[in-house]
């Protein structure tokens, strides 16, 4: 589940264009470092892959190397995205780790495979590999430039001959000055060409094309629409179930009780009064259930006073003690706040009904990347699963419809934790 992509290809900010020479110098410095560090990194990657494949048949020992290989690949791609975006300011989205959403060991293996075939990760690795190769060219080019500068001062030493940098060729002292100038021009041009090539290649590899952005935007819109439709179906089913199993039988009982009271009101006024009192009590209980049902459809306090106040009221009504920690500056969109609120409400309901929890903790934050993040954890028995038509299915689809992500972790024996993240502007 991903947030909607922007509609235009990211562009280099104006401030970056004004300090372009400094950006090229920074790129060359990074490439020089990558020429050393990147070579060691890719050597480790190749070693892990070779050991993993060769030792896979040896009691599965190679699997550990293959797992390390995948995670190291992801770290390499993530670092490359961060490096390039910090250098050029392309506005690249951060590389996210893939999650299958399936619990257990099988889910972890599926997550590992999805991470291995993740296209953005491989683009980051490819960019890092190309940058490493360019760095291996930058190092001798810098040495050539420095040697050419030193060659300019050869006539001052009074030596009869001088050696051309990086060639091992000696020239007469009278040729040292022109050869040094030529070396500076050529090596500087080579370094500038490498810096320009690096900018072009990283942009081509890491910055999505307009067509790719539009395709991703269309895919995301389709996924969100499907989530919204599914969430509305689950919500409708829940409302119908609550009305059919709760309020409707109670109102039928009220009607029957009042009918009995009507029959006894002349012959046995005391019994009729008792029946009326019973019907009155049942009516108040039905009104309470209707209020709770309406609150489950729309929380008016959420619109009036915000997420913090709405969650405080929710925690106060919870049958399980709730430790609430909300730190949200300002307001997010109504869609985002409603998605997070109802996800937390459903989680607390599940904790009270199914997990036999005695304590819950709710943490809500507004992160620097503009997302509203929440985590609900209880100390119950665990083993919660997302079942079609169930409450957790409704949470997942509601969060998906808002452009966010949801992750459930509920091993047998507990604890159960649910993390949701929704863009504030959704």
Automatic annotation (TrEMBL):
Coiled-coil zones: none
One GO location term (cellular component): membrane
Class of the enzyme per the UniProt entry, highest EC level: transferase
Catalyzed reactions per annotation: ATP + protein L-histidine = ADP + protein N-phospho-L-histidine
InterPro entries cross-referenced by the UniProt entry: HATPase_C_sf, Put_sensor_dom, Sensor_HK_TwoCompSys, Sig_transdc_His_kin_sub3_dim/P
Domain of life: Bacteria
Pfam short name (any one): Sensor
The EC number(s) this enzyme carries: 2.7.13.3
Protein name per UniProt: histidine kinase
Residues of the Putative sensor domain: 37-206
Keywords: ATP-binding, Kinase, Membrane, Nucleotide-binding, Phosphoprotein, Transferase, Transmembrane, Transmembrane helix, Two-component regulatory system
Residues of the Signal transduction histidine kinase subgroup 3 dimerisation and phosphoacceptor domain: 235-300
Species annotation: Microbacterium saccharophilum
Residues that span the membrane, as ranges: 25-49, 55-74, 133-155, 175-201
GO molecular function, one term: protein dimerization activity
Entry keyword annotation includes Lipid biosynthesis: no
